[in-house]
Specification:
Layout lengths: L12 H10 L1 H7 L10 E5 L5 H9 L4 E5 L3 H14 L4 E4 L16 E3 L7
Parallel strand pairs: 1-2, 1-4, 2-3
Helix pairs in contact: 1-3, 2-3
């Protein structure tokens, strides 16, 4: 596991998240049962502020990481982060996750549903 040094304060929350994406987040995805697939297709439903998108992107630079979210605030924020960081393997699908017609059968290696079932 990567060495981390979190500040654990609200003042540095975004720095801590950024650190997690590049350390423990990568470790988390490298431990996923993907049978050695170094270029998986990952789908994150309700990507929110994108920490799992970015961790997956860093863990699998040859993979394709899809984010599905219907929040315009999150869409803009994450889209800006993707552009600022020069990341090319994250694709945003900005809609409610009512169907997966854009994905062929058996084309997704890993699906994420973190903090998506509210209320």
């Amino acid at each position: 596991m990567a060495e981390t040094n979190y500040s654990n304060t609200n003042k540095h929350l975004y720095d801590d998240i950024d650190l997690w994406e590049k350390t423990e987040g990568i470790d988390l995805f490298k431990e996923m049962p993907l049978n050695g697939n170094e270029s998986p297709v990952v789908v994150d439903f309700g990507y929110g502020f994108g920490q799992y998108l970015f961790a997956a992107s860093y863990a699998f630079p040859n993979g394709t990481i899809y984010g599905i979210d219907c929040s315009s605030i999150c869409q803009k924020l994450v889209s800006n982060k993707i552009e600022d960081r020069g990341i090319c393997n994250i694709m945003l699908v900005n809609k409610k996750a009512e169907d997966l017609k854009e994905f062929q059968s058996h084309s997704i290696d890993l699906m994420l549903l973190y903090d998506t079932l509210h209320g």
